[in-house]
Structure formats: C-alpha cells, structure tokens
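BUG: 3D viewer hangs when loading the predicted structure for this chain

Environment: internal workstation, default settings.
Expected: structure renders.
Actual: progress bar stalls at 90%.

Input used:
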Amino acid sequence: MIRKNGEYRTELRPEMRGGTGTVKIEHLLDEAGELRGLNRLFARLTLEPGTSIGFHEHVGEAEVFVVVSGTGEIDDNGVKGSVAAGDTILTGFGAGHGVTCTGNEPLVMLAVITQEAAR
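Structure tokens produced before the viewer hung:
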C-alpha cells in the first residue's frame, strides 16, 4: 500500500487534552483496520506556535514522538525538557506527558501509540 501525502484522514482537535490551540492529526495509517497488532496510532501531529497538548496519562500503553521540525517543550511524567528536530521522546507504560510548541514555526512530530502486550 502506498498512501500519498495529502491523502491522510485528518482530525483537528481544539484544546486537545486540556491544552491550547488546535492540534492537527494526520493518520498515516488508520487504526480502523490498517494497524494490526499492538499499535493503535501512527500519525503526524502539527502544533502551531503556542499550541499545546495538555498533560495526560497512558494506561496500559506507551507513546513515542519523533520531532520532524520545530521546537517544543515536553513534560515527560513531570520532567520537562526542550526538543527539536531529530529528537525522540518515549513516554513509558503508565506514565504521562504534555507537549507545547515553543518556537515561531509549527512543531511537527510523528506519533506512535503502542499497547502493552499480554503477559
């Protein structure tokens, strides 16, 4: 399967998880049937300057972000840090995070949410 840029199912989420502004989510693969296995999200997120995703927890799952462009601040389970293009963030199982675009250009990230495997 090949899906061209611009063909993705897109959501606009105002004040996502209690954050500010509107987050654009482009589903690179759609959870409805394309993602088989333990992943439930594979998407490109775009946060315009000043936009944030409020702090929230992932129960039974983890989230990985890869910063494609822009700069931001991540609250990774209470530890805050700056991120820029090329950085990878892992919020582990049962932990929480929040994201803010702190630069003058959009913060673009790839996001993957994976569920914990049964033991």
